[in-house]
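Minutes, project check-in
Item: structure for the 209-residue chain
Input as provided by the requester:
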Amino acid sequence: MLLTDQYPGINSKEFKQFLERENIRMVFTAVDAPFSNGLNERLNQTLVNKIRCKINENNKKTAWTTIAQKCVEKYNETEHTVTKFAPKYLLEGENVNVLPLELKKTCTREVLKRDRKLALKNTIKSHNHNKKIFDLHRQNHNFKIGDRVYVENGNRLNRKKLEELRIGPYKILKKISNSIYEIDIGHRKEESNFYHVTKLTPVEVYVGK
């Protein structure tokens, strides 16, 4: 399965045909909702920042692809703040600790299995903590097929000052998941009508304001 945003290059007919031939399912995130794929977005942001720093580090010209590869390697060898282990260690069992060789502990299969379980436990704990904070200000709407809603008008960073904040109302056609709905916006591509619940406002609530 391939989880992706709605970047036009990825969303092309040719690429979709390739995935179909290879029997690979493609799932799109909702429109203007990068947090739908938050882990990848955060990783990309970290890597872009590292690449930017390296490119501007000195006057020596190096291909950005070479710099990107080195940055990815360094990232994989760095202890993660949540899991408390380096990705390379968890994936391959290679001890990338900066300690001298004579001070490094031998990584046995049992130790690696234990550390992977601990990393998963730490990840779940962090996820639940972040969810608790996010849910403090979240308004849950249980929309039904046929409900009419207003949709947030594009990305707020690209919106002009006097443009409408919301457009519609539009009818809900399908519930994709607990967070994603297909809205009758009228876009040709089905996935371009997928919206995250945080982008939707019930007609009665909007009119009431």
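Outcome recorded: Residues 153 and 165 are 5 Å apart (CA to CA).
No further action items on this chain.
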